[in-house]
Design a protein that fits this description.
The complex is a heterodimer of chains A (228) and B (180).
Chain A (H helix, E strand, L loop, with lengths): L1 H52 L14 H9 L1 H25 L7 H18 L2 H6 L3 H32 L10 H12 L7 H28 L1
Helix pairs in contact in A: 1-3, 2-3, 2-6, 3-4, 3-6, 4-6, 4-7, 6-7, 6-8, 7-8
Chain B lengths: L1 H21 E8 L2 E8 H14 L7 H12 L4 E6 L9 E7 H6 L11 H10 L3 E4 H6 L2 H10 L4 E4 L7 E7 L7
Parallel strand pairs in B: 5-6
Antiparallel strand pairs in B: 1-2, 2-3, 4-7, 6-7
The chains are: A mainly alpha (228), B alpha+beta (180).
């Protein structure tokens, strides 16, 4: 009888751990699928790329091209690309969690919950490279897909903070605690807006532009409040 | 006739001219302010000697000087004090400084990045803040700064510019706290 109890307890424990296991499996699969997609795309492109770069005349040292570092990285250091991207994902996820901690009241509102769901989905979407890699037609595009993914994820916490800050101030004096409908529609558009950034300067320009657009939204709201 | 008129004018002006010639002034400066003293030349000489002996330029505060000199000379001298103390040093006032972008991301103020300063004032004013430019704020006396802070229900916001890295200063009264 004690053996049966032990077996029952073991199964109960397994059942309790199932959701966590499922989540861990899912995240591991995403990294694995990125790894597999990269390997197969590099395999697919390297012959055509080599012929394109050498004009069909492969030589002993066949890369007479300033972008050969990218070429080599994509070919030889696939694991480096995968590791950098998963670290970017982990960092962005941690910083996103801190942003959410900073806006507890706003996350109780419908607009805040929508923003939370949107940016959680956004960070997963950016991490998943299946689509960008399948669309790549050169190794440079493969490399750019990783850069866009990394810098895109890095910008997500700032984008989320801008959105939740907007929710905070737009819903401040409203009766139902939600942003006014006309502003909410524009807010939703701003939450979706992001131009892929291939480097830190483009990311900064993107955030600057986004922050300016939020400021314009607030200027129009403040002016309309003055006119009333 | 002409001579009589000139003589009359001279007699009328003479006492004032004599009085103004004998009055002199002195400014005693400190790190956080200054005391302006105006008195007869004779009294002023005594004050200068006293100031040099007691070394008040470095140590004493303006309140002590005013009390000492007023007690000694009464209304024979005129004293004015000027305080250039910073607002953040005033009792019950809390100062927060940070780059503008950080303040926005932390939810302290509504977004005003890259607006003109006038537009930023409209936005901040529309959401309950009292906002002003750094240049205007610096031109105010400390009393005026305090008055501005007392008048606002939330916080006094001082903007240097609206770039992401421009410094933003926020002054709160401790009793109102950091509501924003």
């Amino acid at each position: 009888m004690p053996a049966i109890r032990t077996i029952c307890a073991f199964f109960i424990m397994l059942a309790a751990l199932a959701p966590a296991g499922a989540f861990a499996g899912e995240s591991r699969n995403l990294t694995e699928s990125n790894r597999r997609a990269l390997a197969s795309k590099v395999d697919e492109l390297q012959h055509s790329e080599l012929i394109r770069l050498t004009h069909g005349r492969p030589k002993a040292n066949p890369i007479p091209f300033p972008l050969h570092t990218i070429y080599q990285t994509a070919l030889q250091n696939q694991e480096l690309l995968i590791r950098n991207q998963s670290e970017s994902f982990a960092n962005a996820l941690a910083r996103l969690g801190k942003v959410f901690e900073n806006y507890p009241v706003e996350l109780e509102t419908a607009a805040g919950r929508a923003a939370e769901a949107r940016f959680k989905a956004e960070i997963i979407r950016l991490y998943d490279l299946a689509e960008p890699l399948s669309d790549s037609t050169s190794l440079l595009e493969v490399y750019s897909a990783f850069e866009n993914s990394g810098f895109g994820m890095e910008a997500v916490p700032a984008r989320a903070a801008l959105a939740l800050n907007a929710v905070r101030w737009l819903s401040k004096d409203s009766e139902n605690g939600e942003p006014p409908p006309d502003a909410a529609a524009r807010l939703d558009t701003l939450m979706r807006r992001w131009k892929p950034a291939a480097d830190v300067f483009q990311m900064d320009a993107g955030l600057r532009s986004l922050s300016s657009d939020y400021a314009q939204l607030f200027l129009s709201v403040a002016v309309s409040r003055q006119e009333k | 006739m002409k001579k009589t008129a000139l003589l009359t004018v001279f007699l009328l002006i003479a006492p004032f001219a004599a009085a103004s010639a004998s009055v002199s002034s002195m400014t005693i400066e400190f790190k956080n302010g200054a005391v302006f003293v105006q008195a007869d030349a004779k009294i002023m000489k005594e004050i200068k000697e006293w100031a040099e002996k007691s070394g008040i330029h470095s140590a004493a505060d303006s309140k002590n000087i005013i009390e000492t000199l007023s007690g000694r000379y009464g209304n024979r001298i005129q004293i004015e004090s000027f305080v250039t103390q910073q607002l953040s040093a005033a009792a019950g006032v809390k100062e927060v400084r940070m780059p503008l972008r950080n303040a926005i991301l932390a939810g302290r103020i509504p977004p005003v990045e890259n607006l003109s300063l006038d537009e930023a004032m409209i936005v901040l004013g529309g959401f309950g803040f009292t906002a002003m430019t750094d240049r205007y704020f610096s031109s105010l006396s400390n009393d005026m700064k305090l008055r501005k802070l007392v008048e606002t229900d939330t916080a006094l916001i001082i903007l240097d510019g609206t770039g992401p890295d421009d410094e933003l200063k926020m002054y709160y009264r401790e009793e109102t706290g950091e509501k924003h």
